[in-house]
Design a protein that fits this description.
Elements: H1 2-14, H2 19-23, E1 26-33, E2 40-57, E3 63-66, E4 69-70, E5 73-74, E6 76-85, E7 93-107, E8 110-118, E9 122-125, E10 133-139, H3 146-155, E11 163-166, H4 179-193, E12 198-200, E13 228-232, E14 235-239, H5 259-273, H6 277-280, E15 284-288, H7 305-321, E16 325-328, E17 335-337, E18 349-351, E19 356-363, E20 366-373, E21 378-385
Helix pairs in contact: 3-4, 5-7
The chain binds fe (ii) ion.
Length: 386
Amino acid sequence: MKRIASLFILLSLTGWTSTSAQTYRFDHGPYLQELTNTGVTFVFTTSEKGISWIELKDNNGKITSHYDVKNGLRNAYTTFNTIRVEELLPNTRYQYRMISKQIADFQPYKVTFGDSITSQWYEFSTWDPKTERCSFIALSDMHQDHDKLAQLLNLADVQSADIVFYVGDMMNYYDNETVPFQSFIDTSVSLFATERPFVLVRGNHETRGNKAREYNRYVPKSDGKYYGAYRIGDVMFVIMDCGEDKPDDFWVYAGLTDFDGYRKEQAEWFSKIIQSKEYKTARWHIVMNHFPPISHLEEGHPERHGVQHMLDLFLPLYRQAKIDLMISGHNHKYEFMSPEEFEEIGFPVIINSTESVARVDIDGKKMKVKVEDRSGNTLKTFTVEK
Ligand SMILES: [Fe+2]
């Protein structure tokens, strides 16, 4: 009896009998967002509210701690963590791990902490601003089928890609905290996203549901926008945010959208970015847009509106932008638009289906493109040389 009592005391001291020790855990992530030459954002969640931070280890083994600090307060008493780290060295490998302390009770003058947890070490590298190589994968329209997503990512050899672009409609709509995780983020984490980033290009379905206005917490960006330009070495990626397909006054949007105004805002932005030094000095220009540039629907069809509106706004700009490749989705049917056939567009466009994946390998003056379907059939390969 005495031995049992002392064992109980020992277990209590080591925390083994604590229920919360077993339940407090990292729930989702970590995954990388907005990786640049000198910065990165870590996103992860915990099962209960706490204070969390990132430990970063450099090449020399020096460890620094990083919190999400806003207006002097470390973000705390939260389960959702978004931690941005800046002033890193370019083209440098780092290790990182998550640390979290549960906050059991948060009174104005007394904070009671629960259990502490620490993750394994993960690794990532900042981009090399001088690199002439970039391998990326682009797919879209998974509509929450995470098994299919995993299959297509593996088919395109995600382990050897630098970055993945999700070109819209990865979900049907967003009305629940777990939908983005279950749809595609958890799968991304298990396959690559702990050490290489993905970029979410919104489709029309990402704008739907009563939580759509909070969606950017999952894909945080320093400027808070979904659209933007993103440069990796010699490649400039342009991310468009197409909005809804039907007109803003269509009954189903209930007067809650202004995508016509938003698309005009983006055209204004695009007209400036293509004149920027950052854009002009990049050898390759790749555009990601959920909407294909041309709609095959008949004139007057409500679902034609968004695509046509974008074409009207962007076509004069596309001609100045020297675009090498556009990747789209939306139609749920694979198509390749060649610049010869679609002369008015003037650059190749891959329209992925719900079953296809594009893999692009850029090396110096050569860009190799391959599109495969879910069964591994090659739908398209071509090489562009400059
Ligand atoms: Fe779509």
